[in-house]
Write a structure and sequence with these properties.
By secondary structure, the chain is α/β, with parallel strands linked by helices. It has a single domain (about 65-325), classed as 3-Layer(aba) Sandwich (Rossmann fold). It contains 14 helices and five strands. The chain has a five-stranded parallel beta sheet with strand order 2-1-3-4-5, sandwiched between helices. Helix 11 links the parallel strand 4 (about 255) and strand 5. The longest helix has 19 residues, at about 310-330. The radius of gyration is 20 Å and the shape is globular. The model has no long low-confidence stretch (mean pLDDT about 95). The structure holds nicotinate mononucleotide and 5,6-dimethylbenzimidazole. 5,6-dimethylbenzimidazole binds near residues 88, 92, 308 and 310.
Length: about 350
């Protein structure tokens, strides 16, 4: 299904979940057949083969490509930063947006290295969300505006989409989201990590903020989109909207780190299988990312100790995507190369 206009309201976004397209089985089979013909023992390219099959199924072609690759960094500010939950001041969000625009951030280098188009979408940076320890982070209209901003960032026909984020304080928001979506039986500390590098006192403030938020919103944390409204942030909701639109357009998505996965998890909780078009690029060093990946049923491609956000893990994984596609598209078959097939 291709639809250009974003839903007007929250009910419209929710009803998209009833219309999720399936992968293209014929394209998948075509890619499997080609893979089986190539001059290598079957399975010998390991997870590179998995990447190719995923792209084939969602792009709808046996010879997938990564020409039109788009990375969008969504930026938002968080009221919860007033509680001392980050190692950096909230002003860094806008300063990094300027850095993205000037080409000086890590993601600028990765996008250039791997031939991806990079865009930055600022979401009301001068107006942080409400401190979710005391009140819902966003009103419904704000949530819908953020979901729509994400939706509008994805166009049909992309070969691959990456949603990235920049938002001082957003690992606290992502921890609260994950705890609310998947339960906090291990305690909130199981979902809290050091983010930009908070010290022990900062980590304790973060855990206290998440615990207080869950208490404040107790009884109102059943619906995943309501959880997003209460505990999320604008850039988080924009990633949710973008990942949903990508699914409707059958555009495959590479998931980045802890915050991007929390945004995606809203969809998975709302509709199991909603993330079938997504591949987890990496496991970040944020302590709870491994748990979150397991909760959404994703096996990360790499674990390099990255904890930067801004789509840097997914941007790095583009190199692996290119490696996978180069082999699938360029290798000779056994017949073409005159190589003997398996004997026994
Ligand atoms: O992607 C991740 O897993 C990740 C882990 C730690 C930090 N970050 C980035 O750091 C910022 C949030 O960290 P913090 O400590 O301010 O909550 C935000 O801009 C994220 O892009 C991102
Ligand atoms: C400098 C800096 C760059 C970032 N990029 C994504 N999150 C970030 C957080 C900080 C603090």
């Amino acid at each position: 299904m291709s639809r250009s206009l974003p839903p007007a309201d929250l009910a419209g976004f929710c009803s998209c979940l009833d219309q999720l397209p399936a992968p293209d089985d014929r394209a998948l089979q075509g890619a499997q057949q080609r893979d089986a013909s190539l001059t290598k023992p079957r399975g010998a390219l390991g997870r590179l083969e998995e990447i190719v099959l995923w792209l084939a199924a969602w792009q709808g072609r046996a010879l997938p490509q990564a020409e039109a690759v788009k990375i969008v960094i969504f930026a938002g500010n968080h009221g919860v930063t007033a509680r001392g939950v980050s190692a950096f001041p909230a002003a860094v969000t806008a300063q990094m947006v300027a850095n993205f625009r000037q080409g000086g951030a890590a993601i600028n280098q990765l996008a250039r290295a791997f031939g991806a188009r990079l865009e930055v979408v600022e979401l009301d940076l001068e107006r942080p969300t409400a401190d979710f320890c005391a009140a819902p982070a966003m009103g419904e209209a704000e949530l819908v505006a953020a979901l729509r901003a994400g939706w509008n960032a994805v166009e049909p026909g992309l070969d691959l989409f990456i949603a990235g984020e920049m938002g001082i304080g957003n690992t606290t928001s992502a921890a609260a989201l994950a705890a609310a979506l998947f339960g906090d039986e291990l305690g909130v500390s199981g979902w809290c990590g050091r983010g930009t590098g908070v010290d022990d006192a900062g980590l304790a403030r973060k855990e206290a903020a998440v615990a207080l938020a869950l208490q404040t919103h107790a009884g109102a944390l059943r619906d995943p989109f309501e959880i997003l409204r209460r505990l999320g942030g604008r850039e988080v909701a924009a990633m949710t909207g973008a990942i949903l639109r990508a699914r409707l357009e059958r555009v495959p998505v590479l998931l980045d780190g802890f915050i991007a996965c929390a945004a995606a998890a809203v969809l998975e909780r709302a509709r199991p299988g909603a993330l079938d078009h997504c591949f987890a690029a990496h496991q970040s060093a944020e302590g709870a990312h491994a748990r979150l990946l397991a909760a959404i049923g994703k096996e990360p491609l790499m674990s390099l100790g990255l904890r930067l956000g801004e789509a840097s893990g997914a941007g790095t994984a583009l190199g692996l995507v290119q490696a996978a596609l180069a082999c699938h598209r360029g290798m000779a078959s056994f017949a073409e190369a005159g190589v003997s097939g398996k004997g026994l």
